């Protein structure tokens, strides 16, 4: 059993050997077994052994009787039949044996394989390879098509395409990466290390760390609570301060300021008593502040704000008041400080006279919008003369100043003082017109007529009113209300205060106001109104006016007075002397123009011109008559009318003129050579129709014809680059593709064999060696 | 006589603070602003004239080389740094802000054939006639150190050009073949040839970085794929191509500077006809470099001038020349797309503005708005004859001018001859060949 098993294994082995060789020698030959007889015999034996194993085979072998030259062990031959040997014939005998499964499988594999074609020429192979590589590469590249197209057609491209993100490294990292190189740096670091100072994170010394550790929990909590409290308090104070700062009431602020000033003054006094030297220093400081104020233009109605207010002042009492306040402030600040020990009441009054004067000047100047030296001098001198008004004439500004300064002493009596001042002002108001009328004749010389005087009086009134308003806004309301009646507009100074009031800017009064305030002031208001001229006369003939004025009055011609117009209402400040001449001037101008262009008839000329142009542009008839043709010709002989009619070629009617219905225009339709030099002759490339091109030209892009936004949109440049920024080539990641080139090197290294196969390689050794890694690092 | 005057309240037009927007009251009623086209035309004309008035492109000349400048390289990270190699083997590093040379290296014996910087900007490579490739540190040697290269590779043949990969530690040289090197190795990791003539330049594609293009003296341009380690395609032109340059914004577009006075822009997927033939030079074009925006390129020519071409136009928009500038060998467009550098035979590197009339320095917003508006106006009216004439007008050296005339005559003669030949031969036997197709001899797969 064991012998047969061994034989069987041997057999299979030998078969395998043979079959393994099968693909090598393709044409099947049976002549291989013509070996020596010994081998033959052995083989026979082997076959017998096999046949003993398989009944069928034995029988077949036994049946073979025919003598054949070459007997195959498989009982197949192709000699006689001329047929080709087919593998299936070979397989037939072993079909049934289950033990030859592996052999069968191999044989089948061989059967399936085709013969391999001859390998291509190296050049051709390379070409094929190249073609494949090219097609794949170009396919890979075509993924860029949409990106390229988009960028080419983009309205605007901003380079660099990828905006850099700024990343902020914490200081510890920066320090960590940094190393001391120079000896100085090293020294510094040594010192730091010696003192155990922190170099990198966390920025605490060991001592600090220890102290941090040492603090107990309770302590920490207490401290935290304290801190919290402090913080809360701070926030409260802040909130309070903010609230106070937000309060808009001027009065409140005034009161606060006053209070502060009071305290300061008290302090100053106490300081004076305690240490006079420091008090003196303080005084010096105040003096210095005054000097600074005098030097500066801060409160002198010179600033932008003040100028804007000055424009408004004419109409807006508040603006006027604000300006006055500013002036008052200036006054206050520039007021020379009295030595506190002196008696303020007496000397102050003396000085106040002097001080008061420039204030009036100021007012007047402000109102007339121009410095007038005449007014200046006259006013001051006049006021100085009028000593009667000395006391009550204190101007509000000054009073205000007094408030701030003198109230330190007055203290609790402030309210009384206020009342007193109010009454004083009323008085002052009543007396003021007198003063104004005093000033008039001196201020204006003989050339002035009553109308201009009136203007002046108006100004005065205005200034006075301003001063009054400054002081007491609420009183002013009643005052003005009581004084004004629309009918009384023209009324000049009749009584003490009446002439001024009607010409104030606020002329329109509600009846209610009238009723309220009217009775309180004067009953004279309701008197019937007289004619303007008469009133002016009256005004001039005021009984209370001083003698000087009367003298002036005599010089004024009555006739002149009567003929002059009353000044126009529109302009309060502008002198109205020009207005009366206006009509005359206009007439003059017209006359002058008429004279200058006496001979010209422009319209007729134009019409004539147009007619000529029309005639010239009309197509002409062509006369083809030949004189003397078919008739007698000669000097003095005309062709017959019939003939002429016959040969006259009528010109066709041209298109209607463009200016046919435009009487004031001549439109020339001739080609302008000068313009032609600037015009486009040929339709430029991208356009397909001339209308297209014209449309692009016709749309304006300037900011004159477009809104700002449209202008920006229309003028956006196509390419924007930032100076100083490096523009990198576009990357696949930028446009959302996966980068294909990440593994450039590794791919090359992975298949080095292909290189050697497909290309002529003069440096083959090099490349292979390079991949094998036997090369030395470059030094 | 009364004088009537207009008066305006300043509050209506004066800003309260200077940070406020200017208040410009404007009535857009078109009847109030008539003649918009003539007015804009005049503005455009003025803008064009002013552009020519202010066209002063020359900024500086960097002198210091003792032989012709053979190659230039930009620093990838610093705008102010530029490297140049001369024909005596000297390499200089320049600071453009100071316009000073900051370092000089005697790198090679004989010409410095090629120079390129590493993508990170820490080192650069040079190759020369002494058959070596050397890597140098960008920073100068420390005190007491000797100026010597980091690495040196000694090759068997002369390397005529070098270019560095845009992202990896690989560089390519050309000479007898195109070699691709790993920076760490002394032998190339792969070498590719196709044909037997020496290759004059090799360039990596900046976008698809595995692609290379090279041009050889047998008139061809060969494209390679580094990943597949194979050439892709070869196009043979009429005459030799000196160098090529890839478009940094369009992966498949490259421009070749040719000896036949023209430049050819190719789409690498369709090499049989160039996308555009750029002609204006009157002598061989030696170098070309794209603007980093990819919209324009600059070319250097043997005719002693450099020209700027829009990519889509066949004629140049600008020509730069000076009396002293000789044959321009190399040219580079700086990475911020504002300046152009060119190195020429007479040992100087010149710095030009890319936009001749551009104002340098910071512009205020109003200046910017005015510039944009003027630019748009010029563009709008560019077809009008007067404006076109002024905008196109350039002064040229007499040699170039006469050459242009001469070549125009020659071209016209050739065209006439062809027309005559076509007229007198059988219809269809003399086909009409477009200018683009004329110059491509063959495409080899």
Would you give an account of this structure?
The complex is a heterodimer of chains A (779) and B (445). With 779 residues, chain A is mostly helical. Helix content of chain A is 58%, strand content 1%. Chain A contains 34 helices and four strands. The longest helix of chain A is centred in the first third of the chain and has 30 residues, at 217-246. Chain A is flat. Chain B has a domain at 59-353: YVTN repeat-like/Quinoprotein amine dehydrogenase (Methylamine Dehydrogenase, Chain H). Chain B is built from five helices and 29 strands. In chain B, a hairpin with a 3-residue loop joins strand 19 and strand 20. The longest helix of chain B has 26 residues, at 398-423. The mean pLDDT of chain B is 93. The interface between A and B is large, with 90 and 88 residues.
Short account of what is shown:
The complex is a heterodimer of chains A (779) and B (445). Helices cover 58% and strands 1% of the residues of chain A.
Question: What is CATH's topology name of one domain in chain B?
Answer: Methylamine Dehydrogenase, Chain H
Which geometry of chain A do the CA atoms define?
flat
**Rg from alpha-carbon coordinates of chain A:** 62 Å
Q: Which chain pair shows the most residues in contact?
A: A-B, 90 and 88 residues
**Count of DSSP strands of chain A:** 4
Mean pLDDT of chain A: 67
């Amino acid at each position: 059993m064991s012998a047969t098993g061994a034989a069987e294994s041997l057999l299979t082995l030998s078969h395998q050997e043979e079959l393994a060789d099968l693909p090598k020698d393709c044409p099947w030959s049976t002549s291989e077994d013509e070996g020596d007889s010994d081998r033959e015999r052995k083989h026979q034996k082997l076959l017998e052994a096999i046949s003993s194993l398989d009944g069928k085979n034995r029988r077949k072998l036994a049946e073979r009787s025919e003598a054949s030259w070459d007997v195959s062990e498989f009982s197949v031959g192709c000699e006689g039949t001329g047929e080709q040997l087919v593998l299936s014939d070979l397989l037939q005998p072993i079909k049934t044996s289950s033990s030859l499964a592996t052999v069968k499988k191999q044989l089948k594999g061989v059967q399936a394989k085709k013969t391999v074609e001859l390998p291509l020429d190296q050049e051709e192979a390379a070409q094929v390879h190249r073609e494949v590589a090219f097609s794949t590469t170009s396919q890979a590249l075509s993924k860029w098509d949409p990106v390229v197209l988009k960028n080419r057609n983009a309205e605007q491209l901003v380079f660099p395409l990828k905006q850099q993100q700024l990343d902020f490294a914490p200081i510890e990292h920066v320090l960590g990466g940094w190393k001391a190189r120079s000896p100085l740096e090293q020294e510094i670091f040594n010192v730091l290390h010696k003192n155990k100072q922190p170099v990198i994170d966390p920025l605490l010394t060991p001592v600090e760390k220890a102290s941090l550790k040492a603090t107990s929990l309770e302590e920490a909590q207490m401290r935290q609570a304290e801190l919290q409290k402090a913080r809360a308090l701070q926030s409260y104070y802040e909130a309070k301060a903010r609230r106070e700062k937000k309060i808009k009431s001027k009065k409140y602020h005034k009161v606060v300021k006053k209070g502060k000033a009071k305290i300061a003054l008290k302090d100053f006094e106490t300081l004076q008593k305690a240490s006079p030297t420091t008090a003196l220093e303080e005084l010096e400081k105040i003096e210095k502040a005054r000097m600074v104020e005098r030097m500066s233009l801060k409160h002198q109605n010179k600033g932008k704000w003040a100028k804007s207010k000055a424009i408004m002042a004419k109409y807006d009492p508040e603006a006027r008041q604000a300006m006055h306040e500013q002036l008052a402030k200036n006054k206050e600040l520039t007021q020379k400080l009295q030595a506190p020990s002196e008696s303020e009441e007496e000397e102050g009054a003396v000085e106040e006279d002097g001080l008061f004067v420039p204030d009036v000047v100021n007012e007047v100047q402000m109102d007339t919008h121009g410095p007038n030296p005449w007014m200046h001098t006259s006013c001051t001198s006049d006021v100085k003369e009028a000593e009667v008004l000395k006391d009550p004439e204190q101007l509000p500004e000054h009073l205000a100043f007094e408030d701030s300064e003198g109230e330190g002493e007055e203290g609790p009596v402030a309210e009384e003082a206020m009342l007193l001042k109010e009454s004083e002002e009323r008085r002052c108001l009543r007396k003021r017109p007198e003063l104004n009328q005093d000033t008039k004749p001196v201020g204006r010389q003989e050339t002035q007529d009553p109308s201009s005087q009136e203007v002046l009086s108006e100004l005065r009134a205005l200034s006075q009113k301003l001063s009054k308003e400054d002081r007491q806004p609420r009183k002013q309301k009643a005052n003005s209300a009581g004084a004004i009646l629309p009918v009384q507009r023209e009324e000049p100074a009749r009584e003490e205060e009446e002439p001024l009031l009607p010409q104030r800017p606020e002329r329109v009064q509600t009846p209610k106001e009238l009723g309220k305030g009217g009775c309180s002031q004067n009953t004279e208001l309701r008197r019937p109104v007289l004619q303007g001229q008469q009133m002016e006369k009256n005004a001039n003939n005021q009984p209370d006016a001083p003698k000087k004025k009367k003298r002036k009055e005599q010089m004024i011609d009555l006739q002149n007075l009567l003929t002059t117009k009353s000044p126009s209402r529109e302009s309060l400040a502008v002198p109205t002397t020009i207005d009366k001449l206006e009509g005359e001037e206009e007439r003059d101008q017209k006359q002058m123009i008429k004279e200058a262009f006496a001979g010209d008839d422009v319209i007729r000329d134009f019409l004539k011109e147009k007619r000529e142009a029309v005639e010239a542009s009309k197509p002409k008839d062509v006369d083809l008559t030949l004189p003397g043709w078919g008739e007698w010709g000669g000097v003095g002989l005309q062709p017959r009318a019939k003939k002429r009619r016959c040969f006259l070629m009528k010109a066709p009617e041209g298109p209607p003129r463009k200016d046919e219905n435009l009487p004031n225009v001549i439109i020339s339709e001739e080609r302008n050579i000068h313009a032609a030099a600037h015009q486009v002759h040929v339709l430029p490339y991208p356009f397909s129709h001339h209308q297209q091109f014209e449309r692009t030209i016709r749309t304006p892009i300037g900011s004159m014809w477009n809104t700002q936004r449209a202008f920006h949109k229309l003028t956006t440049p196509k390419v924007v680059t930032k100076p100083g920024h490096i523009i990198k080539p576009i990357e696949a990641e930028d446009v959302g593709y996966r980068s294909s080139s990440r593994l450039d090197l590794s791919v090359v290294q992975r298949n080095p064999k292909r290189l050697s196969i497909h290309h002529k390689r003069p440096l083959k050794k090099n490349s292979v060696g390079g991949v094998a890694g036997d090369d030395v690092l470059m030094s | 006589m009364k004088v009537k005057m207009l008066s305006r309240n300043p509050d209506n037009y004066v800003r309260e603070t200077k940070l406020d927007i200017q208040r410009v009251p404007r009535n857009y009623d078109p009847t109030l602003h008539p003649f918009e086209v003539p007015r804009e035309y005049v503005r455009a004309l003025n803008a064009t004239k002013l552009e020519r008035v202010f066209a002063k492109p020359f900024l500086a000349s960097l002198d210091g080389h003792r032989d012709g400048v053979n190659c230039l390289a930009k620093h990838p990270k610093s705008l102010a740094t530029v490297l140049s190699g001369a024909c005596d083997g000297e390499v200089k590093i320049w600071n453009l802000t100071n316009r000073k040379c900051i370092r000089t290296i005697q790198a090679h014996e004989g010409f410095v054939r090629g120079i390129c910087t590493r993508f990170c900007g820490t080192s650069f490579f040079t190759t020369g006639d002494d058959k070596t490739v050397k890597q140098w540190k960008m920073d100068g040697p420390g005190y007491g150190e000797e100026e010597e290269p980091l690495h040196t590779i000694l090759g068997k043949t002369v390397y005529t050009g070098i270019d560095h990969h845009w992202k990896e530690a690989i560089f390519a040289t050309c000479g007898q073949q195109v070699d691709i090197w790993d920076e760490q190795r002394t032998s190339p990791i792969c070498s590719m040839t196709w044909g037997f003539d020496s290759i004059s330049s090799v360039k990596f594609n900046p976008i698809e970085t595995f692609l290379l293009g090279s041009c050889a003296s047998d008139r061809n341009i060969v494209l390679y794929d580094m990943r597949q380690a194979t050439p892709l395609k070869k196009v043979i032109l009429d005459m030799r191509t000196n160098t090529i340059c890839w478009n940094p914004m369009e992966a498949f577009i490259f421009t070749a500077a040719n000896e036949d006075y023209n430049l050819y822009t190719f789409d690498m997927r369709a090499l049989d006809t160039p996308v555009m033939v750029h002609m204006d030079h009157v002598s061989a074009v030696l170098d070309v470099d794209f603007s980093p925006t990819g919209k324009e390129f600059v070319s250097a020519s043997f005719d002693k001038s450099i020209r700027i071409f829009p990519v889509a136009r066949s004629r140049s928009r600008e020509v730069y020349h000076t009396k002293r500038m000789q044959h321009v060998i190399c040219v580079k467009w700086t990475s911020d797309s504002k300046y152009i550098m060119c190195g020429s035979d007479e040992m100087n590197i010149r710095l030009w503005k890319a936009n001749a009339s551009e104002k340098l320095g910071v512009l205020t917003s109003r200046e910017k708005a005015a510039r944009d508006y003027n630019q748009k106006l010029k563009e709008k009216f560019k077809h009008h004859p007067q404006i076109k004439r002024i905008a196109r007008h350039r002064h040229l050296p007499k040699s170039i001018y006469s050459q242009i005339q001469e070549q125009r005559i020659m071209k016209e003669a050739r065209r006439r001859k062809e027309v005559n030949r076509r007229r007198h031969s059988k219809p269809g036997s003399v086909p009409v060949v477009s200018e683009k197709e004329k110059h491509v001899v063959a495409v080899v797969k």
